[in-house]
Amino acid sequence: MTETPEAPESREPPETAAAAMPPRAPRDHNRAPGFLSDRARFIRKETVRLSRIAGAGHYSSTFSAAELFAALYYGHLRIDPADPAWPDRDRFVLSKGHAAIGLYPVLGDLGYFDPALLDSHTRFGSAFGDHPDMKKIRGIDFSSGSLGHGLSVGVGMALALRVQRRGARVFVMLGDGELAEGQIWEAAMAAAHFRLGALVAIVDRNGLCIDGHTEEVMAVEPLAERFAGFGWQASRIDGHDFGAILGALDALPPPGEGPPQAIIADTVKGRGVAMMEGALNWHVGNLSDADYDAVMAELDAGLRPPVWEHER
Amino acid sequence: MTGDPRTQGQDQSDLFTGDGSDIAAKPTVQGTPARALPAFVLGEELSALADADPRIVVLTADLASANRTVEFKARHPERFFDFGIAEKNMVTAAAGMAACGQIPFAATFASFLGILCAEQIRTDCAYPNLPVRLIAHHSGISMGYYGTSHHALEDIAMMRSIAGLTVACPADAAMLRAMLRASLDLPGALYLRLGRGRDPVVYPEPPADFAFGRAWRLREGRDLAIITTGAEVRPVLDAAAMLAAEGIETRVIDMATVKPLDIAEVRAAAAETGAVLTVEEHNLTGGLGSAVAEVLVEGPRRRFARHGVPDEFAPIGPPAALYAHYRLDAEGIAARARELLAAPAA
């Protein structure tokens, strides 16, 4: 279960090392709509199950990102679960580390580790805490949990991949509340300055932070304009629509020198469970036994049309 | 009025100028060839190491001239990154680079690296155990009249409390070279605390047998032992010579690595000399003196023990399980107290 960070590259010049790398096929993708929506349901149900082991969990922050996780990991990222340290893989940094409970089941499902290990979630000595640890969990590209750091990690990764002349991308999933952290905008400025076209920020724009609506606690809008003002190319999509998510990912320009890419994904916090959708009190919670069964049944029944923040 | 307005009428030998021009233009500084000063050696040594090692990248935060990493930029422009005045972003980006196989050297003033970026160092460099090399220059009070904002008198204490982080303070240019070379094979993150970069020679050559965690005994004596580090090594040696003229023989120990501390050398100093004095350019709380005191006050046959979390990051677990694991609940504390009382007294 334990994995140290990938071994340092050889001391060969980077171009030589890259040229010596045998061509590799990334993992096959499955973009069938029924498959992806089933995987998003799996992410939500596992979040509910694992939260019960912990006695508390970040349900709603994970539910808002379920379609994004599913689209990325089953439908887009160039990764190889058999070789988590593959140097040419795409990187994924979960800057909003508190949603890791939704990422762990995906990594287990893809074969990074035995999914049965998830049953130890948050118990003493487990690899799986509330926030992901790259030293303990195969498939985690960077440890996170302290909000506001992830975009800087992505800047560094994209620069390293440029030095090594690799064609991989770096995806960073940001929460909207953490955009109040100043370091995010230091990183945004640097990404544009260094012309990191391989860097992709995906904002899970679910509208809520712990104390309330982002626009009331600390306003982050106009988001696309703010990223554009920092020199990024920004698009805005429905973050629960697989067609829109995959469309935005497919539309990314080649990962060379150019403006960094921001995808503002409008989502509903708590999406998939009616009593949690748009609710402030489910950032961290613990379902009662009766509610647990009801929530699992509701997730099995499938998603209803979303109710957006501006419609409430 | 002619010349540089910043230096009009001043003694330039003790002047700090942010762009490094005071030494860049001089053949010698206070008797030492400018090229033999740590300020020049940093960029020169990293450039030479990078010729052979493609993992090396260098980052700074709008101080490339002050820390002479401009020399690296000139030789390896594709591996040099100036992050502007954004130190936190620089440190975390360095960690991202290290996670992709590079060995980043991130250099800026100690006040902004060790103090401003303490959380980025802990969470992004030390916790993932990444080989980020944090070059904290102009530490202590070496920036003089720039004032408290530019002083770093707390950084050893802060860095020393971060699990797994190596903390080292080169006394001069040769020791700096030795540390930079050895850092290429050092697992985990490293905080390298430099002075103003004008430090005179202590070591004629880089110690061939350098290893992090080892102290250097620079002078022998039985009346007194002075344990020091970094920029204070030279003045301690000079003080020892003055004391010798008065008949006081002083053992001088360069504790080049503050963490992990050379515990055997500290114990030997206490056992073999009449008194131990620590000297450091740092607040007396939490620095080298505290580290030495921890060794001397605590240990076998001592009636003092510290009980807390050892130098590691805590495992995952519910809070109650963690308190029990570290014996920080009532039962654990009582057990630790019994152990202390049961140990044979001195």
TrEMBL record, chain A:
<feature type="domain" description="Transketolase N-terminal">
    <location>
        <begin position="52"/>
        <end position="296"/>
    </location>
</feature>
<feature type="region of interest" description="Disordered">
    <location>
        <begin position="1"/>
        <end position="32"/>
    </location>
</feature>
<dbReference type="Pfam" id="PF00456">
    <property type="entry name" value="Transketolase_N"/>
</dbReference>
<keyword id="KW-0786">Thiamine pyrophosphate</keyword>
<dbReference type="InterPro" id="IPR029061">
    <property type="entry name" value="THDP-binding"/>
</dbReference>
<comment type="similarity">
    <text>Belongs to the transketolase family.</text>
</comment>
<dbReference type="InterPro" id="IPR005474">
    <property type="entry name" value="Transketolase_N"/>
</dbReference>
<protein>
    <submittedName>
        <fullName>Transketolase</fullName>
    </submittedName>
</protein>
From TrEMBL, chain B:
<dbReference type="InterPro" id="IPR051157">
    <property type="entry name" value="PDH/Transketolase"/>
</dbReference>
<dbReference type="InterPro" id="IPR029061">
    <property type="entry name" value="THDP-binding"/>
</dbReference>
<dbReference type="InterPro" id="IPR033248">
    <property type="entry name" value="Transketolase_C"/>
</dbReference>
<dbReference type="InterPro" id="IPR005475">
    <property type="entry name" value="Transketolase-like_Pyr-bd"/>
</dbReference>
<feature type="compositionally biased region" description="Polar residues">
    <location>
        <begin position="1"/>
        <end position="15"/>
    </location>
</feature>
<feature type="region of interest" description="Disordered">
    <location>
        <begin position="1"/>
        <end position="28"/>
    </location>
</feature>
<dbReference type="Pfam" id="PF02779">
    <property type="entry name" value="Transket_pyr"/>
</dbReference>
<feature type="domain" description="Transketolase-like pyrimidine-binding">
    <location>
        <begin position="36"/>
        <end position="201"/>
    </location>
</feature>
<dbReference type="InterPro" id="IPR009014">
    <property type="entry name" value="Transketo_C/PFOR_II"/>
</dbReference>
<protein>
    <submittedName>
        <fullName>Transketolase family protein</fullName>
    </submittedName>
</protein>
<dbReference type="Pfam" id="PF02780">
    <property type="entry name" value="Transketolase_C"/>
</dbReference>
